[in-house]
Amino acid sequence: MTDRTYTDETLNAFVDGELDLDEAVEILRASEDNDEVRTRLCELRYLKDMVAHAYSEVPRAYNDALPTSSRTSSALMRSVTAAAMVAFMAVGIGIGWVSHEREMMQTVAVPDDPVFLDISEVFSLQEAKSAHGKPSSIILHVATNDRHRVEDALAKLEAFVDAQQLDQQRVAVEIVANGYGLDLIRTAHTPYEDQVKQLARDDYVTILACRQAVQRLRDRGIDVDLIPEADFAPSALDRIIERLREGWVYVKV
Amino acid sequence: MTQVGDLFSRRRFEKRLEETRGSLYRMAYAWCHNRYLAEDLVQQTMLKALEKRNQLRELDRLESWVYRILANTFRDWHRRERPVEPLDNHEPVDEAGPEQAANRTEIVERVRGAVAGLPAAQRQVLTLVDLKGFSYAETAGILEIPIGTVMSRLSRARQQLKANLDVRPGNAAPAVRHLRSVK
User: Fold this and answer.
1) Phi then psi dihedrals of residue B90, to 5 deg
2) Rounded to two decimals, what is the model's pTM?
């Protein structure tokens, strides 16, 4: 016997607790009288439980050495929360981030008012200075190889560096590249090698590659040769958070 | 708001944001089945949440607000870069030795494989409802789609899962009664 009196949407809504009371009672009664409805409900419930179960524990990105059974997501969440709570009590304000390389939870504090500026506004020396009433260093996050955006950023950065050559209080700029942004400093890929090298000659400009992003490419068998002026940050995003904590201005290309 | 009040509010925001990290990662992993990408998506999401903190008017809405940021981050990535890396296949799910653990691992891998095989839009709806327990209305808000679309995608997702996991073959349908209302 087949019975499609109730649509799949309706039975899904029942299983998901989305029906109002009258409708839910109606479905319950139907399931008592009708094997087909009961079976469909059981299947949907079973599917729902299986999906939830399949992701109750998921592999972490950077702690593979640890047994997953001891790093369940709920346990991990508890440890994050506990670590964060300790940090909040200790430093008053903070937010936890996973420290991938050390395979442990680390909390860092961000300033009360982290500064995120658009690239169109940040390369005004005045903007950088007014953010905290004094020169704020800038962390420039390059995560794209979009030619227009990268060229625009480089042009503005060059103008910015030139403009402050005579300034008493220099503003440090740290360029952190990850993802497709690595192309900016990959010898075989960058069309901007001369520009980047010229920028790197300035004592106040630092160029960093995300070690995780580089490693990920190498894991996939891709050769990654970086220009010698580039150094490594263990993780681009952890570096950004660290700089934000120190009061730097964040700009994303 | 006073400075003290503002500071208190900011601390509560950051605490609540941090508390979402574990479930955000689980969701991101269920969407992309790549742990490195999931980690990146979550970090980008949290960075954006910090940046856009002032856009959140009610702290009680933080969770669905953050998931909306995650959904947008995932959508942007999906549009931009399309999946190129293989899924995290054959991940050891359980390191315990008993046969029960082996069976469990096999089931989990099968289910993850079936979920990964769904279209991304269906996968997102399914996992928001089943993993996180979001209501249809919340899911619609997070993904910025009509509630009817949530229901139809969820239905199609479960139908396909049922077929792929061989839970039980479906049957033909005569008369159909439609749902009157959803909470």
Assistant:
1) 55, 35
2) 0.57
